[in-house]
Structures are given as C-alpha cells and as structure tokens.
Amino acid sequence: MITPAAGTVSVPKSVRLGYGVGSFCTATFNGVPGLLLLFYMTNFLAVPAWLAGVVVTAPKVWDLFVNPLVGRWSDRTTSRWGPRRPWLLAGACTLPIAFFLVFAGPPLTGVPAALYVGACFLAAATAYALFEVPYKAMPGEMTDDYHERTSLLQWRMVFVGAATAISGVLAPAIATSDGQDGTLGSYRVMALTIAVILLLAMLGSFFGTARAPMTGAPEPDRGGWREQLAAVKDNPAFLWLTVLACVQMLAVSMMLAAAPYFATYTLGSASATQTLFAALVGPILLTMPLWVRVARRFDKRGAMLLAVLLFGGGTTAAMATPLFGPLWAHLTILVVGVGYAGLQLMQFSMLADVIAVDAATTGKRRAGVLTGLWTAIESGVSAFGALIFGIILTIGGFVESEPSTFVRQPDSAVAAVLIGQTAVPALIIFASALITLKYRLTPPGAPASPSSG
User: Fold this and answer.
1) HSE-up of 235 (CA within 13 Å, CB side)?
2) pTM, to two decimals
3) d(CA 332, CA 315)
4) Helix (H, G, I), strand (E, B) or coil at 220
5) How far is 194 from 137, CA to CA, in rounded Å?
6) ∠ at Cα 329 (325, 333), nearest 5°?
7) Which of 278, 287, 291, 367 is most buried, taking the most CB atoms under 10 A from its CB?
8) What is the pLDDT of residue 321?
9) Per-residue pLDDT tens digits for 126-156
10) Alpha carbon distance 319, 235 (integer Å)
11) What pLDDT is stored for residue 224 in this prediction?
12) Residue 233 CB: number of other CB atoms within 10 A?
C-alpha cells in the first residue's frame, strides 16, 4: 500500500510541459524505426525478411545490458543539474546523429546493408538509453501524490500522441514523397527531418525540467548489482508491471512493424499508413482527461483492464478488413487508439508509483536502476515483435525486393500480413488482462493485497 507523504508536492505547469516535450524523443525513436525500418530493409535494401527482423531486434537486446547500467549511473550522479538531467543532455548530443545514419547509409544491399544498418541502430539504441532511462525515472521523483502522478503523465501522453503523428503520418509522408513507395533519397530526407525533431525535443526537455521538484530518497543505493537485483526480486508490484509492459509492447511492436505491409498489401496503398496512424493518434490526443477520470473512479488497474479490452477488441475486429474494406480498417484502428492511450498512461503512472513506494520503503534512490531494468526488459521483449512478424512473413512466402523491381506477393504472404497485424497481436494483448490482475499496488487508504508486497 502507498503510504501518504507528509505534504503533497505539486508539479508546476511549466515543468509538466517541459517534461512532456521529451516524449517527442521517446515516442518518435520507438515509432519511426518500428514502423519503417523493417520495410526499408526488405523493400529498398533487398535484405531477407528474417535477417531484417534480426537487425531490428539485436540492438534492442543490447538494451538489456546498457539500460540498467545507465540507470545505475544516473542514480549515483551528483551535479548542480540533479542526477537525471546531465544524461538527458548526453542523449540529445548523440541520438539525432546516430538516428540519421541508420537511414542514410552508402548504397549497399543484402547482407552488407543489414550489417551497416545494424551497427548504426546499435549506436542509436545506446544513445537513446542515455536519455530514456533517466527521463522515465523522473516522474516518480517529482511528486509524492498517487493521483498527481497520473495527472502529470497525461501531459506526457499528449506529447506522445503528437509524436505518434510524426512517426505515423509525417515520417511515412516524407519517406514516400518521391513515389508511392518512396526512394532511398526520400528516406534520407525523412531521417534528417526526424533527427532535427529529436534534437529540439530532447533539448527542450533538458531545459524545461530545470525547475522540477525532487522528492523521495536523497541518497543513492550504493549496493552492488547482486544486492540491488535481490531487492527487485522482492518487489512483486515491479515484477508484475514489468511482465505486463513487456507483453503489451510485444503486441504493439508487431502492429507497428506490420502497418506498412498492412497498408500496402491489405488496403492496396502504402500511403494508407499515414491515415491509419492518424486514426491511432486522434484518441491519444483527445482522451487523456477521460483516462485520468477513469483511473480515479476505478483505480489504475481497472482503467488498464478497460484499455486492454478496447485495444484487443479493435485489433480483433480489424481481421475483417478484407470483407469490409479500408473504412472498416480505420474505424477499428480508432478503437485501438483509445485503448492504446489508456495502456500507455497507466503503464507509466504505475511505474512512477512503484518508484515512489520503493524510495519511501527503502530510503534509497534507485529509480534509475528500476527504470533501467524495466525499460531494458520491455525494449528487449518488444523488439521481438518485428522479429516475429518477419518470421510470419517468411513462413507466408514473402518475397523481398528492390525499388526498381516489382514483385507480386503470393496469396499466402498477403494472408501472413493480415495475421501478423491482427490475430497474433490480439491474442497477446488479451493475455495481458490476466497479468493486470496480478498487479495490486493500491492508492492511499485502500487495503493492500499480499501480492503488492
């Protein structure tokens, strides 16, 4: 159970905005590669689908090692900017360059192209960790109020919605500007544009959080890895939340990787990727106040269950797209967007609660370690979404190609695209409902379950 603090710390509006703008980085970096990188490699660099899936997955697995390390470093950082903000600046100075290089390589195809993209994506994943891990640790240290954290994070989600628009609408629009499917040159322009947006967002968050309050444990946990991991194992709420986030992000990452294929081979137009993402983004931008009220009324676990049902129901309904056409696809994605908004807000609000309770219980500052582990495991597992989808394509007989060569995909490959976009993610997301029931961290004054620790 969360113990009420002596005095509630309110986060100034300017800090909420400054913190929220950092989500342009987190959502865009996850969204653009998740949406376009697999398609870019298979359809522009002639990389086999299975190998492209490995390339997308491998740098994310690297997160399992680098994210906890960055979290530990940020916990132990002492500076006039606080423990987290120096790392935001480090990420801002490195990620935009690495991201551009992922899509701006020399004229290579096949295995050499896969090796180049893989190396650049690994560098980008490392730079992203410098920003992302401390960034996610901050809300649990900004306020000591259970519901204030949800209110704070709705601002983050508004920016996530805007960043998702950039990922799903602007990025594909630029990438396909030189033709229906785009060219290598248009992908380079897209990469440069997104790199500039990343730089501005990350610097905006660094400067915008200069006045952020700092609550919780003032002293970092200086125990060794063994002691810190042992403490994590004794925190059931953190463990169940991590499993929950992993399962949900696996489904989301599969749908992201499948979206350009779904638009191209199910709806008949690669440009439909933009309108599908517009349908996804709209609810994220508009439903945050509603999800905050739902969480207050039914608690965060109840809100999460509702979000799962909406996401899974919309994904399941999208299976009927070949029968009902593009309008049906967009309506079902609209429902998915409402559910996705709730999933994201509840995940991050629950993580902030876990961090705050851990600090209050132990008297140690280890938000970075917890966030690093959570982000690393979630990122590593979610990266398998592209790999699984790549395997589904391979089983379906999908034929890789170059822009100059038209390839008519077999019916089995078209069916594989639909299954990878709808049926498999739906099964995964519905499984997360059972995991949600195991998360029992309650608000102040509510009876605690033994499962909450």
Assistant:
1) 25
2) 0.72
3) 7
4) strand
5) 25
6) 175
7) 367
8) 94
9) 999 999 888 888 887 777 766 677 777 777 8
10) 39
11) 61
12) 9
